Amino acid sequence: MKQQLEKIESLAKEEILSCDDIKGLDSLRVKYLGKKGEITSILKQMGKLSAEERPIIGQLANKVREDIENTISEKLKALKQIEQDNAIKNETIDITLPGKTKQIGKLHPLTIVANEIKEIFIGMGYSIADGPEVEYDYYNFEALNLPPDHPARDTQDTFYITDNILLRTQTSSVQVHVMENQKPPIRVISPGRVYRSDAVDATHSPLFNQIEGLVVDKGITMADLKGTLETLMRRLYGDDYKIRLRPHHFPFTEPSAEVDVMCFNCQGKGCRVCKNEGYIEVLGAGMVHPKVLEGCGIDSEIYSGFAFGLGLERIVMRRYNINDMRLLYENDLRFLEQF
Ligand code: DAH
Fold it and tell me: Is the C-beta atom of 253 inside 6 A of ligand 1?
């Protein structure tokens, strides 16, 4: 029996050491140490032994069992280590590879400034009105006191779809839509694209953006207009900025004014940018003409209002010191990424 046990031990060790996977190791454990394993089957025969032999063989059997167990667990450790090493080797990532960068979009400078102006007016209780870019002659001209042969139409030549339908030349057309659909008090701004058949150059484009403003209520005066525009310009450019109203003529306002803002470059002293004026023209404005109010069914004896229209591009160009309007439309990322 002793020899049997010794033979089992050496065979088992040999098999264990040459085994190279964890599963195989497990079946070796069953084979040698399991309930139906080889050592158990020898221990079952212990009854046949004499009283002196029994403890000696018992001890030996236990030692063999322990040795085999140790060998198995050492081998298991070694196999697990190999497995882990392999896993690490297979899963390594090359951290020197360039990563995948996400291109994050940005708002266009025209959108940035339009949003800012909207915020300023929403803060003053205005709402945003929208109107069609393809417009009837009536809304773009006639209802704004520009009848068919009015000479001021010449300065706003546009693209006609039919004799009667055109691409709007000014957001002032939205004033009429708003007044037709809403009773005073009215307080709206309306940003949007407008069109004119102008040749492209550094300060002209056949498509550009305006922001219209309209307030109609009882007792609205020119002072309200001036205060509102002053608030707008100070919020946009800073508290030091003064505005100046110059008499002008628009068919749909009476009286009318052109509004200048102190030159950002020289702060009113006069320089090349403002052509020595100290001020730069930024928008047109005035008190809504009674004819326009009446045409929209608003009693001009009871209500009065002011309106203004500003060119967004001009404000954006001043804000960012851009000297060519075309840059705003060319969609060159090298330019746009700066904002
Ligand atoms: N619509 C005018 C233009 O495009 C600008 C303008 C002037 C708008 C006076 C107004 C206004 O609302 O009252 O030149």
Answer: yes
